[in-house]
Amino acid sequence: MNKIYLSALALIAGASISAQVNNAGFENWTTGSPNDWINFNITSTIGDITDGSTNVITPATEVTTGATEGNSFAKLTSFNLANSTDATNYPDGDYGSILVQDIVSTDKYEDFTFDVKYDVKPNDTAIFIVQAYDGAGNLVGAGSEIFGGTQNAFSTVTVDMNYIGAVTEYTVFIASSEGQIFNNALSTLAPGSWISVDNIVVGAIIPNVPDVTNVLATDISDNEDGSDLELTFDIPDESNINAYYVVAMQSNVSPFDLSNAEAFIAGSGVMIATTGANQTFNFTAAGEYWRINAAGDAVENVAIEEDVEMKIYVLVEAATGYSSVIATSNAITLTSPVSVTDQYKEISIYPNPANNFVNFKIDGLENGTVIINSVTGQEVVNTTISNGMKQVDVSNLNNGVYIYTIRNNNNEVIKTNKLVVRK
């Protein structure tokens, strides 16, 4: 699931609080230097802004009396826009008021605490939500608290965070109506709902368990079933790891597309005990993978089959006090080119592990190609082979695991497997 960017229509609901960005009472962060709150001005010049009746309101304000710390706090109020002067971009209707802030940090915070009071209309809900993202913009952590009813005095609330991977950035959303951010059938956006927030503080930093490395899926045999699929990976330290869980999924869907990736893998995957730094897991003939169903609205599990591109996901389940992580293998498509391989009497790849050179020997192959890819899919070698023999220079490759593929002149796969470079 990629990072959620709210629509321009949603963002106009957050108004400028120009003095607030330097106010320690509202942005009392214990570490780092967060960016300014994103400011989106919406004023009476765009139309009539009311609480749904005749009361004219400002969607977001800086309140300078009654702060729990510092000199001010933020108040957000849902509103009705009528007689819009820009109906194309800002049509008449009901809106929630929003404030948004990005925080660049690689630390995983155990929780976020803040002071809050609110008056939310019946059937509406206000929300405070924190989302964490990795460097590719994938959602890897979240925590939220939903508010309904009335709380007239400030009280302190703690939002616990859950993570499934490494973090590079956070986004904090505060909305007077949850429906302005998410389509929620249980929450009806209601003008006049308001929420006030002050004194946001990050909690203790959670250490990650070590990331697994060299996560490699390979097609190891020609049985035409799940037993062809093998997963290998390395782990530098198992001292704070409870177990591993592995699950295979079609490449067009991933656990990150689901509501709770960690829970899905732990509940639907196969558990592997912690047995050493180098792990190998072989799927069985009855092994299953997950794919999108025919209706396109859910995932379903079926027997592993050939000619389907898959990836394997590894959940490293952490011990108490540590954060679990998820790693992903290369894309793999199982094939059984039995009729092709029968043409060749001997297939040898040596030495493996390789140092400076690796030899490919395929008796009976007159011409073909040898391609070597990194586990992330980057092509690092592409060369021809003739008369059944080729010596490939790998001296310029970094130590690690690679995938080689040998094809004949008809572009048929003769063999694919892993190659280890170790100098």
From TrEMBL:
InterPro entries: Secre_tail (IPR026444). It comes from the Bacteria. This is T9SS type A sorting domain-containing protein. The keyword Iron does not apply. Residues 349-420 form the Secretion system C-terminal sorting domain. Keywords: Signal. Residues 1-21 form the signal peptide. Pfam families: Por_Secre_tail (PF18962). The lineage of its organism: Bacteria, Pseudomonadati, Bacteroidota, Flavobacteriia, Flavobacteriales.
